[in-house]
Amino acid sequence: MKTSKAALSSDIEDYRDHHWRRDATRQIETAFEGERFIEQLGFTACLTDSRRPGPSLYIAVCGRRDAVLPRNVQKDPETSLTWRLKDEIVRRSKVYYAKLARGRSAFLAPRLIPSFNAVWGIRRSEEKARLSRPAQTVLRVLRREWEMTSAELRHGSHIADRHTFNQAMDELQAALLVVPGAVFYEPKFTYTWTLAVGRFPDELRRRVTRDEALREIARAFLTGAGMTVRGELARVAGLSRKDAGIGNQALVEEGFATWVSTGVYRLSSLARQPGAKAGTD
């Protein structure tokens, strides 16, 4: 079931405009602003537009609710700026970036890394059972060399087929094992890849329970969204409907959220203030 915009009241839309920077007065223009945006929200997509639910760096660069990626993105200044900011944020390594659940590129604030790892991460003892053979091969090579370009990794892992290699890289990113370390465009476009634990050792070694993780993912989304409607958290975070419900219900139990109707939750602080507008940072 897709998120229904009609289910959101004007005060919630205004709240999201503020927190998701869908406002022309709060557009993101620098990598520092982008990192601050990610830190405040906990997690956000990179290049999704208004046709998908949830916050996005691209929408925050555009500064409007109805931002839609044009067909010719190469000549679009807002898309180009988002791409350049993404590259710089990846290079600075202050926040986490990778293709996560369902193959969607997303940013994570360091505080949310343990939670995402608890839900989607794979422990070393589980790798042989849960990773494909190509993914295991690539991971073994990268652990030996630590950082390599795509071409070096393909050569070192003896994976000639590009599609098989890309699938392996997507698999390793989704398991929070490998992240892009930098992007280069000359002499040709390529990523360098590195071990995620090398970039964020403390966060990936900190263990939290699955229920705690679901609660904190739900908390991060609800804090930025003000209200979540049926199926929205699941689509934005890549969770199952059941797991999204567990996270939201845990927030209700502690008084952080208020249950409105089936699958619909609202920040308790907003529920106590009908008609409340966006707050301050």
Major sheet description:
3 strands, antiparallel
The number of helical elements comes to 15
Give the structural class: alpha+beta
Weakly predicted, low-confidence segments: 1-6, 274-281
Q: Please state the average pLDDT score.
A: 92
Q: What's the total number of strands? A: 9
Q: Tell me the radius of gyration.
A: 19 Å
Q: Give the amount of beta strand, in percent.
A: 5-15%
The helix/strand order is: HHEHHEEHHHEHHEEHHHEHHEEH
Spatial strand sequence of the major β-sheet: 1-3-2
Tally of structural domains: 2
Question: Quaternary state, please?
Answer: single chain
Summarize the structure in words:
The chain is an alpha+beta fold. It folds into 2 domains: 172 residues, no CATH class; 86 residues, Arc Repressor Mutant, subunit A, CATH 1.10.10. The protein is 49% helix and 14% strand. It is built from 15 helices and 9 strands. It has a 3-stranded antiparallel β-sheet. A 3-stranded antiparallel β-sheet has the order 4-6-5. It has a 3-stranded antiparallel β-sheet with strand order 7-9-8. A hairpin with a 5-residue loop joins strand 5 and strand 6.
